[in-house]
Amino acid sequence: MRFDEAYSGNVFIKSHPNYEESKAVLYGMPMDWTVSFRPGSRFGPARIREVSIGLEEYSLYLDRELEEVKFFDAGDIPLPFGNPERSVAMIEEFVDKVLADGKIPIGMGGEHLVTWPVIKAMHKKYPDMAIIHMDAHTDLREDYEGEPLSHATIIRKSAELIGPSNVYSFGIRSGLKEEFQWAKENGMKIAPFEVLEPLKKVLPELAGRPVYVTIDIDVLDPAHAPGTGTVDCGGITAKELLASIHEIAHSELQVIGCDLVEVAPIYDPSEQTVNTASKLIREMILGWIK
Hints:
This is Agmatinase. The chain is an alpha/beta fold and 290 residues long.
């Protein structure tokens, strides 16, 4: 993928036209090859960009404007349809390049499996990293119906790579009993149902550490984000998720990268989900790119 010019299609509002001058790189991972229920998240990144034109460039929450942050929209990685192995390899190669250039990767999915190659790339540069994970689901399976490369295995793989005690999951409300047992036995932190209050308690112990943040849009209740592949009732509100993003922004965390995944526009004709996702991306850029 070329970095010497802006993406030829739609770009996220106020993205910087020059890769070299940018501090962060926004990119899409349009993949939904292993979803277990409803496909369609491969269309998420493009639509999030398209609706971003309706955003204000200024965040009242953070008193900051997008023009204050130089971020380059690199477009979508051209992943091979139906080939998770090759797709994962391409994502890791892409992020390796971004990190080698000293930039912060901001990913848009795509199914949650796309986070796995990003974590592998991040861990090579930041071996002492931690992960903050916001999701409805544990994603701690070893495999899904015999397939180890699955959106249901991403956090298990990541925990085994960086150590379970370095993974902090929030908002979890669904998973196998065995997944919760594995987390407990191996020292992984899971905060069920809620995000903001348990996050506040954890942030001090993560101060100064390199942290990657991955957000599955289904951490939100379906009333706030119906456009996703695996909806699960009982989630948090959009207001709480925004507050959680801002809590991280005001903390002493070193955010080394982040992503927002599992936005599937086809299941939300009102476009509530993609508009919410677009605002979340804006706040992640303004709050976490110092």
